[in-house]
Amino acid sequence: MRPQPKNPLIRWLAKGAVVTTGVVIAAACSAPAPHPASPPGASPAAASESSWPPAPVVPLPSQPAPFLVVDTPLPDQLAMGLAVIRYRAENLRIVAVYGPNALDVSPRIGHIHVTVDGAAWHWADGSGEPLIIQGLPPGPHQVLIELADPTHRIMDRKTVDFVIPPRDGNPH
């Protein structure tokens, strides 16, 4: 036990400081935390009305339609014979999960189908990584990218046209 000051004024000030410190700590601990993107002094209600998307772990009662965004291939890579195509899905997460039970996942999940030059076959990709297609001969090419749900039902599609230029003096 610490010795108490003999001066009553100092004892009174010390008790007041302890009480004030306790009130400040209680107020700080009970105040709602500000939204990370809120400017200083913004109210918590204003923060909750921000443009942040819903948390990816909360089921959404009504989800907007998914759609596909696809970039054109990067020209420097085309000159080397590589088609590097970046894409992303909006309102859907690209994952390698398939089957009818995956239709109940919220937010929505899916994958892409890729068809090169109108081939009779395609491949499915659930990585979400850019497509890298190599070994195409010089000349025009077309890649069809389809956004599919876990049961392979197509939800959106985009076509990318590009030309692999001749390399090393070889026109073919």
Write the layout of secondary structure elements.
Blueprint: H1 8-30, H2 44-48, E1 67-70, H3 75-79, E2 82-85, E3 87-90, E4 93-94, E5 109-116, E6 123-125, E7 131-134, E8 139-148, E9 154-164
Parallel strand pairs: 4-5
Antiparallel strand pairs: 1-3, 2-7, 5-6, 5-8, 8-9
Q: Can you put this structure into words, describing what you see?
A:
Strands 4, 5, 6, 8 and 9 form a five-stranded mixed β-sheet that branches. Strands 1-3 form a two-stranded antiparallel ribbon. It has a two-stranded antiparallel sheet with strand order 2-7. It is built from three helices and nine strands; from the N terminus they run ααβαββββββββ. It is α+β, with helices and mostly antiparallel strands and 172 residues long.
Instruction: Please state the average pLDDT score.
Output: 77
The run of helices and strands is: HHEHEEEEEEEE
The proportion of residues forming helix, as a percent range, comes to 10-25%
Question: What's the number of helices?
Answer: 3
Report the span from N to C terminus. Answer: 93 Å
CA-based gyration radius: 30 Å
> Hey, roughly how much beta strand do the residues contain?
25-35%
Shape: elongated
For the largest beta-sheet, the strand count, sense and barrel status come to: 5 strands, mixed
- Poorly predicted ranges (pLDDT <50, ≥5 residues)? 18-36
How many strands in all? 9
User: What is the structural class?
Assistant: alpha+beta
